[in-house]
Amino acid sequence: MNDFIELHQGILKNLEYLRKLNGYTLEYVGDSLGISKSGYRKIEKGSIHISLKHLHTLSLIYKVPLDKILFTNLASYQRTN
């Protein structure tokens, strides 16, 4: 169970990191996913779960492979590459 929690927290950190890196607002990302700003804020904060469909859409928006969002600490990865 701890592995799932760590994976989920890593994904949320990556989503926030990518949004800020690209200079996107919560409203812009929410609109891109067809949800409200507050709905997307809840996703980033972990209050509600993100769907695989939304994760896929975000990977296209950010031009980052889905496996990188899921399994890589992008903030650390970007600093070393």
UniProtKB/TrEMBL annotation:
Highest taxon of the lineage: Bacteria
GO molecular function: DNA binding
Stretches assigned to the HTH cro/C1-type domain: 15-69
CDD domains for this protein: HTH_XRE
Protein name: Helix-turn-helix
SMART domains: HTH_XRE (SM00530)
Listed transmembrane segments: none
InterPro entries: Cro/C1-type_HTH, Lambda_DNA-bd_dom_sf
Coiled coil: none
